[in-house]
Structure to design on (298 residues):
């Protein structure tokens, strides 16, 4: 009888641990609202594991959810104009990560619009931003889901259309041939633009003529290295909706929540519509009570 009780206790504790982990985990719902295919990439920061997928194809109108553990830190971006063979080798016009479908620890080649986040552990808040410090390729907006009082952020303006000639990445006929807009740091390599050398601190590194163009177009996005004050946000959410091309037919205010597109099957991740944390947690809560009662009965 004692042995059976011990087994029941061990089983209960294991299930409780699993549900505690699930209840405290986070996810990213990545949506492609562009009128063309994109290839999202993910990169974990130092000391945190890579996500279950580090790169995948996402057709227009598709939405994929990728889970992340508490404390995860990293970035998510979209690659465009990619071609890959059956082995996953290939190349992208923008945002390439070493010429592979799965980035596997490789970051985005600039210019690329980036969503960056550090998930809090326990009651600690999440810190997140959208950065165009390394340049811009396509618009995106990030919205915490299922919580109130948290800010959306992003860059919804098509910077490729107004990109200064000296920063333009030109390839093909789309948008006048401009597929991305480089940062002044990448274009000129000067310390004053890169916030390096004697400019490697907020006192000496100030917004440049070029970063000011980015900031006027996308006031909530990071435009240069020390742009923290107006560009870093905090929240505690169980899901973050990351939408590329939030409104492909026009501009959308940065605090507007993007519409949820039709959900289609996809071979990577879990395809879902965005849901609130309450809806997600309810079944786990009921099952945990059931298992606890079952333990007491034995």
């Amino acid at each position: 009888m004692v042995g059976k009780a011990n087994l029941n206790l061990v089983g209960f504790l294991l299930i409780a641990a699993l549900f505690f982990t699930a209840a405290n985990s986070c996810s990213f719902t990545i949506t492609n609202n562009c009128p063309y295919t994109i290839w999202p990439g993910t990169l974990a920061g130092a000391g945190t594991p890579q996500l279950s997928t580090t790169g995948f194809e996402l057709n227009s109108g598709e939405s994929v959810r990728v889970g992340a553990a508490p404390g995860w830190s990293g970035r998510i971006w979209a690659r465009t104009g990619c071609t890959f063979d059956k082995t996953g080798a290939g190349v992208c016009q923008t945002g390439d990560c070493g010429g592979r479908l799965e980035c596997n620890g490789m970051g985005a080649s600039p210019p690329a619009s980036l969503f960056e986040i550090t998930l809090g552990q326990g009651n600690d808040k999440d810190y997140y931003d959208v950065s165009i410090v390394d340049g811009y390729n396509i618009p995106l907006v990030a919205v915490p889901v299922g919580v109130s009082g948290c800010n959306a952020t992003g860059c919804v303006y098509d910077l490729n259309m107004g990109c200064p000639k000296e920063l333009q990445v030109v390839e093909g006929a789309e948008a006048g041939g401009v597929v991305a807009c480089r940062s002044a740091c990448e274009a000129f390599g000067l310390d004053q633009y890169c916030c390096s050398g004697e400019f490697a601190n907020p006192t000496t590194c100030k917004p440049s003529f070029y970063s000011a163009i980015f900031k006027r177009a996308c006031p909530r996005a990071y435009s240069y290295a020390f742009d923290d004050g107006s560009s870093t946000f905090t929240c505690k959410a169980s899901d973050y909706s990351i939408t590329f091309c939030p409104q492909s037919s026009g501009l959308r205010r940065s605090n507007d929540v993007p519409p949820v597109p039709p959900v289609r099957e996809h071979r990577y991740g879990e395809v879902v519509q965005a849901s609130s944390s309450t809806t997600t947690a309810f079944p786990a809560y009921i099952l945990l009570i059931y298992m606890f009662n079952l333990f007491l009965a034995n």
User: Anything to note?
Assistant: Confidence is low (pLDDT under 50) at residues 9-23, 249-296.
